[in-house]
Amino acid sequence: MDKPFVAKLRRIDPYVPGEQPQSDTIIKLNANENPYPPAPGVQNVLRTFDAARLARYPDANGRALKSALAARFGLRPTQVFLGNGSDDVLALAFQSFFCSDLPIVYPDITYSFYPVWCDLFRIPYRTLPLDDDFCIDLRDYDAPNGGVIVPNPNAPTGRGLTLDALDDLLRHNTDCVVIIDEAYVDFGGQSAVPLLETYENLLIVQTMSKSRSLAGLRVGYALGSETLIDTLEAVKNSYNSYTMDTLTLAAAEAAVRDEDYFQQICRRVIATRERTAEALRALGFVVSPSQSNFLFVTHPRKDAPAIFAYLREQGIFVRYFKLPRIDTYLRITIGTDEQMDRLLDALRSYL
């Protein structure tokens, strides 16, 4: 049957997330989720939440959560923006700030959602190659551009930039918005938050999905100057003024206020990461230095897809990217010590 309307539909290659198996018998190390539960305060919110509150709209401004985040980072609530996960925040930021005819720039190996948004919002872009060690060459970013977005630490490599390097990047890009995507910064990276006082064009995006164990609630936020935050709010309110629900706002606030638990969990993940990296190197793997809750690894004598398939047969899911330059690598999320021991046992059997 003839369908002439199909020619008018948007055609785009969507972002493909990692598999989300639901079986309790599977060790899921493919989505960079936190293996530990949220803070006790979050669990208390879920136990005691009055369902009658859901009959009313949530606070569209998320004032309590913004105040908690502002207090933690030493900012004003007017410097905080909220969204349904950092993907929502980043999508709104792309629409808000990347409006030039010049291409935006970002690393060639990075979060694969960036080109999807560029295609969706018709934003010109140019990728800049990482070096052979998967590091950013800051001088590549000195040329005129329509905006910069850099994950710190990067994904899927796990490598991060120092605060001095971030300052260098911003000093050479004062005429555009620079977005630092800090989804994994709590696991050993250096945050750009101290630079907000100096650079009005800096936007920092973080998430509660990783270090605060709230991937199932979708909580993201941005930190920046009032000029940038006001623009984000205007774009959001032109699209959907109620982006976060009442239960999520309450749980996220509880998570932010429990700093001790947050620090404890981050230290625990980092300790397991370092122990696992050492064990993988002992098995002959090359392990990229990581400041994230995952490891990026390759084996010089073994085929990555074959390892990926073997682990899957053993009920252990890791991530494999069939992409140029990284198709010999696996990305392995850091789970509990017990889960990582099972991974290592499986790899020993394979090798």
Describe the structure.
The protein is an alpha/beta fold and 351 residues long. Helices cover 35% and strands 14% of the residues. It contains 10 helices and 13 strands. It has helices at 40-48, 63-73, 85-97, 113-121, 163-171, 226-237, 246-257, 259-282, 304-313, 337-350; strands at 27-28, 80-83, 104-107, 125-128, 148-151, 178-181, 202-207, 220-224, 286-287, 294-298, 316-317, 319-320, 329-333. The strands form 4 sheets. The protein has a 5-stranded mixed beta sheet. The protein has a 4-stranded antiparallel beta sheet with strand order 9-10-13-12, covered by helices on one side. Strands 1-11 form a two-stranded parallel ribbon. Helix 3 packs across helix 4 and helix 8 (259-282) runs parallel beside helix 10 (337-350). The protein is globular, with a radius of gyration of 21 Å.
Main sheet: which strands, in order across? 2-8-7-6-5
Mean pLDDT: 95
Radius of gyration computed on alpha carbons: 21 Å
Instruction: Tell me about the largest β-sheet.
Output: 5 strands, mixed
How many DSSP H or I helices? Answer: 10
Distance between the termini: 54 Å
Total strands: the figure is: 13
Q: Which word captures the global form? A: globular
Oligomer: single chain
Helix proportion: 25-40%
As a percent range, the share of strand residues is 5-15%
SS-derived structural category: alpha/beta
Low-confidence stretches: none
The SSE order reads EHHEHEHEEHEEEHHHEEHEEEH
Outline of the structure:
With 351 residues, the protein is of the alpha/beta class. It contains 10 helices and 13 strands.
